[in-house]
Design a protein that fits this description.
This protein is an alpha/beta fold and 234 residues long. Helices cover 48% and strands 13% of the residues. The chain is built from eleven helices and eight strands. It is globular, with a radius of gyration of 17 Å. 50% of the residues are buried.
């Protein structure tokens, strides 16, 4: 029997998203007892500088803090790395490779799932930094999927919803959440067959029932792929 690999979660970006991801990791594991679950070490450091602001040239480089967290997970014996922060994927692939950890990319996992479902057009709800870095755009276009993004006003609503979650709120039925649902619906009206909550806070801010097309949760897709990587299953 193959040995289950220890999973490192580089979290804290933000804390609520990290909690949400670990819950999904548990849910995605076909376990009948404690011992059958994935062994996990979580590095939850919310002091990492804002990734989106850095990508926009308006903030501190988060690389040193990200490297520190990855090094701690490596030292703890982790072999598989999961990062439930989409924007951080502009920085972590190189750092994971430096540390010799297998990164399960939330971006690549999501792009794989959309392509496998035959999706041709996907709407993206993400931080401005993620969109500016074209993280999902590149991954989707490589698979023949066309990405579409909110207009400037819509993007401001997306960032407001992210901020509401980071401040401790649960805005699905409040102003930021309702505005976010309107932005998601506008992407569907422009031809999106799926709307991707490509920021882990947005999963907590968007009421999928208010969106006329299926909403894709990258955090759950990541959890499923991490379970497979930990157990060595296809």
């Amino acid at each position: 029997m193959a040995t289950t690999r220890l999973v490192g979660v580089l979290g804290g970006m933000g804390p609520a998203a990290t909690v949400d991801f670990y819950g999904k990791l548990v849910q995605e594991t076909a376990a009948t007892c404690d011992q059958a679950h994935v062994p996990v070490v979580i590095w939850g450091d919310p002091r990492v500088p804002d990734r989106s602001q850095s990508l926009l040239g308006a903030g501190e480089d988060p690389t040193p803090q990200l490297r520190r967290g990855i090094a701690a997970l490596k030292q703890a014996g982790c072999e598989v790395l999961a990062v439930p922060c989409n924007t951080a994927h502009a920085f972590v692939p190189r750092l994971a490779a430096e540390a010799g950890l297998e990164l399960v990319s939330i971006v690549e996992v999501t792009a794989d799932a959309l392509a496998a479902a035959g999706v041709r057009v996907a709407g993206l709800l993400a931080t401005t930094g993620t969109l500016r870095a074209d993280l999902y755009g590149r991954a989707l276009r490589r698979r023949g999927v066309t990405p579409i993004e909110p207009d400037a006003a819509g993007q401001r609503q997306v960032m407001a919803a992210i901020a509401a979650v980071k401040s401790g709120g649960t805005p699905q039925a409040t102003g930021p959440g309702l505005a976010l649902a309107e932005v998601a619906a506008s992407l569907a009206a422009r031809g999106a067959e799926r709307v991707v909550t490509a920021c882990t806070e947005l999963v907590l801010a968007l009421d999928a029932a208010r969106v006329p097309v299926p909403v894709v949760d990258p955090a759950r897709l990541l959890a499923g792929r991490v379970v497979a990587a930990a157990f060595g299953t296809p």
